[in-house]
Specification:
The protein is α/β, with parallel strands linked by helices. The protein is built from 14 helices and 17 strands. Strands 5-6-4-1-7-8 form a 6-stranded parallel β-sheet, with helices on both faces. The longest helix has 15 residues. The structure holds adenosine-5'-diphosphate (ADP) and magnesium ion (MG).
């Protein structure tokens, strides 16, 4: 039974006229008020539409960016309400606050089958508060706007936040289609994956991602490492990395992983060549990319992409894979001169016969920016942090609370 059917059952058989609060992940990249990648809005549409089709009065709650618990114009969800309306083919009412006068009157005015979006939930300090009472008080206000709750923001289910966790404890609740699909794919990556199972890691949040390696060393057959994470590994092997991204305090951790990989027969592939420049790319100066051996990064340079030999080697390592999980771009793909490593890996993933999963906000944007269709991959996950924590073996509070 789908989550939405089970919710109807909990509410006496029908959602018609019922106010259903949906936590979606609508945290899209904006350039001013222009949405540069609407992938997360698109991914949220099916659940919202099926609730509206079931006759619910749908109240969507979401965040955008990282406001500090107070309203900030640049983080308003108003442009998202317009785009959501276009994708739904129906007007989306917009409340200019989350639990205040505007929210209450907007929800009151909703007819069966209509949709409203509340203003950025993180404009309220209660949303992300570490204090259970403060968070709970805000969740009480959110819950008072609805008869039921649907959790569909996969990108935030690893957060113990009011609109993700506490509100589920206060209302009849169900898992939305998006979260259910994501969890299903992640389960296939962790329970008996088809082999060879290859994991590709990159990106810039190095220490965030090192944790997942710990768990994957027992599960994956090969681990390909690119992006900003590379340099801490290269340094751990005794090489100089110039001005590259480096986390000194993780050197021992990386050394430990390299040793454990050797013992357990997991192959860790590091790039053998790197594209460097003397400065991090900025709009003020044309990039001057130079390819150097990974073991000879000049002191005045920093690594910004894996080199062409490494791109080819990574593609070859992916060729016979039956299961692939990829998180994190191989380089600073936002700049063409440093996007080729990411392109090589994306291209190789499209050839995989079996399950290929792309996880992470920037990774998903990268494959779209490079011109790949979403359908070229088995699954593009909407949540980077959440999928990594799941793969690390951690419990996700926003999922746990739905099961309780
Ligand atoms: P995701 O959102 O897919 O989880 P991250 O947020 O960890 O990925 O990292 C994405 C960012 O990593 C991109 O903005 C990219 O420019 C940056 N990046 C990739 N390689 C490097 C590198 N060698 N040095 C610095 N930044 C890098
Ligand atoms: Mg990111």
């Amino acid at each position: 039974m789908s989550g939405i059917d089970s919710l109807a059952q909990q509410l006496g058989g029908s959602l018609r006229g019922k106010r259903v609060l949906v936590r979606s992940d609508l945290n899209v990249p904006l350039d001013g008020s222009t949405i540069t990648d609407d992938g997360r809005i698109r991914a949220s549409v099916p659940t919202i539409r099926s609730l509206a089709d079931a006759g619910a009065r749908v109240v969507v709650v979401a965040h955008l960016g990282r406001p500090k618990g107070a309203p900030e114009d640049r983080y308003s969800l108003r442009p998202v309400a317009a785009r959501l309306g276009e994708l739904l083919g129906a007007e989306v009412a917009f409340a200019t606050d989350t639990v205040g006068e505007s929210a209450r009157s907007t929800v009151d005015a909703l007819q069966s089958g209509q949709v409203a979006l509340l203003e950025n939930v993180r404009f309220n300090p209660g949303e992300t508060s570490k204090d259970d009472a403060e968070r709970g008080a805000f969740a009480d206000q959110l819950a008072s706007l609805a008869d039921a709750f649907v959790s569909d923001g996969f990108g935030v289910v690893h957060r113990k936040q009011a609109s993700v966790y506490d509100v589920a404890q206060r209302l009849p609740h169900a898992m939305g289609n998006l979260v259910a699909t994501e969890i299903d794919v992640l389960r296939r990556l962790t329970v008996d994956p088809e082999r060879p199972y290859v994991v590709v890691l990159g990106g810039s949040k190095v220490s965030d991602k090192l944790g997942v390696i710990d768990n994957l060393l027992g599960k994956a057959d090969k681990l390909l490492i690119g992006g900003g994470m590379v340099f801490t590994f290269l340094k751990a092997q005794g090489h100089e990395v110039g001005k590259s991204l480096l986390e000194e305090d993780q050197l021992d951790v990386c050394r430990g992983y390299l040793d454990r990989a050797k013992e357990s027969g997991v192959e860790i592939l590091l790039p053998t060549d790197v594209v460097v420049d003397t400065e991090f790319p900025s709009g003020d100066r044309d990039p001057r990319p130079v390819v150097v051996p990974a073991t000879e990064i000049p002191a005045d340079s920093l690594g910004l992409d894996i080199g062409p030999d490494s791109g080819a080697a990574f593609a070859a390592a992916l060729a016979d894979a039956r299961t692939v999980f990829w998180n994190g771009p191989m380089g600073v793909f936002e700049v063409d001169a440093f996007a080729e490593g990411t392109r090589a890996v994306a291209q190789a993933l499209t050839q995989v016969s079996g399950l290929s999963v792309v996880g992470g906000g920037d990774s998903a944007s990268a494959v779209r920016k490079l011109g790949f269709e979403d359908s070229a991959f088995g699954h593009i996950s909407t949540g980077g942090g959440a999928s990594l924590e799941y793969l690390e073996g951690k419990e996700l509070p926003g999922i746990k609370v739905l099961e309780d």
